[in-house]
Amino acid sequence: MPASSLNMNSDKVTKSSELTPARPASMEESKVGYIEVEVTHDAVFGEISEDGPNYRNVGWVGTAVLMMKTQIGLGVLSIPDAFNVLGLIPGIIILISIACFTTWSNYMVGVFKLLHPEVYSIDDVGRMLFGRVGLWCFGAAYTLFFIFVAGSGMLGLSIALNAVSVHGACTAIFVAVAAIAGFGLSSIQTLGRISWLAWVGISTILTAIFTVTIAVGVQDRPADAPDGPWASDYKLVGNPSFAEAITAVSSLIFSFAGTPAFFAIVSEMRDPKMYTRSLLICQFTVTATYIIIGTIVYYFCGSYVASPALGSAGPLVKRIAYGLALPGLLVTTTLVIHLPAKFVFVRMWTGSQHLVENTLTHWISWFGCTFGITVIAYVIASGIPVFGGLISLIGALLGTSMSFQPMGCMWLYDNWCKKGRTLHWYWMVFFSVFIIVSGTFLTIAGTYGSIVGIINSYNESGGSAAWSCADNSNSV
Known about the structure:
Layout: H1 3-10, E1 14-21, H2 27-32, E2 34-42, E3 46-49, H3 60-71, H4 79-86, H5 88-115, H6 122-165, H7 171-186, H8 191-218, H9 242-254, H10 259-267, H11 275-301, H12 315-349, H13 353-356, H14 360-383, H15 387-399, H16 405-415, H17 423-461
Helix pairs in contact: 1-5, 3-8, 3-10, 3-11, 4-5, 4-9, 4-11, 5-10, 5-11, 5-16, 6-7, 6-12, 6-14, 6-15, 6-16, 7-12, 7-14, 8-11, 8-12, 9-15, 9-17, 12-14, 15-17, 16-17
């Protein structure tokens, strides 16, 4: 698609000053009868005015930070363990390959949004590609995926609280505290108002991660290494089984699986044409961070790396690191509750005044959405004995399938009937089909690896108790 065509179709959001009847507040005002109100028309949200929430108020810098925060969390701390399974060289090559493929997928989100401004979330893509079946399947996958990620965020916060307080309370209480805090912050109406929290979250989580990275570099040995003379047993090339290898690859994909959220983020940008700039900053920063942290921590810890890696440098550094990471973990939980709640809310009130005006119905339904998502995520996280394995399964099944296959289909949808087919067109058809096929393989194989992991874990430990009081930071 030529750049000129993109520019012509990219910005269907217009601003206009409309004369809106006013409610007379005084005799002088009643003589005028009208006040001038700034109104923005958006293809998703409808008429946006100063009387309601401004859904289109995220700048390109805030967009980049929101993107980074949807991806950088405790997932980054599983990368050294993935390198331990795959070996350092294959691990880095696979990580960079995944970064390149997901960058293209994320880029397609911005291109598709410019060409189809009415698209708000991935379920709209499903409707355009596969009709009503696609609408419901993609919408259910999006909601379920982020509900499980929200549950994972709550457990991450409970681990941090246990680590900092040295198990100062029952873990079930800490999970409930995390759910309450996540509900309160996720109820902020717009991503524009949440973006400042993303700044806090990304800075604190990176500070915690680099603290551990430095600590393992200056210490003689990792915390779990045996007594006596010790040297790192890192491997340049690993020798895993297929199930172990594909599970490690899935964990790397999960670290980049923020793609489904990017539809909602670009929908709240002031200028969606700046999306690509934000994306490149996000992907470069995230990839560089993953490589630096994964390489250094694995090089110094070898097979004795903890997963998550915050526990690799000993109890004291673990407490410090989790203390630093607490705000970042809270912001992650906030975002992954807000996104599915906003999805349900927008679908509930599309075309209605209750979407864009601060009516009583607006507030009741908005709080109902955030509360409902929070409660479901809390119950799933606390009540399922094999939740850790289940989140890996959901990540492999839904996170992978929403980060690859739809984007290949999106390119074909917009370009298959294009006239004047060139060599570039044939190459892009091949590449899009390759993305679809490889994404399908990774989805199926990753799901298989996760199921094998769940079975092995359950056979070894029997799973965890529902609403357990046990210290869940001991293993990390």
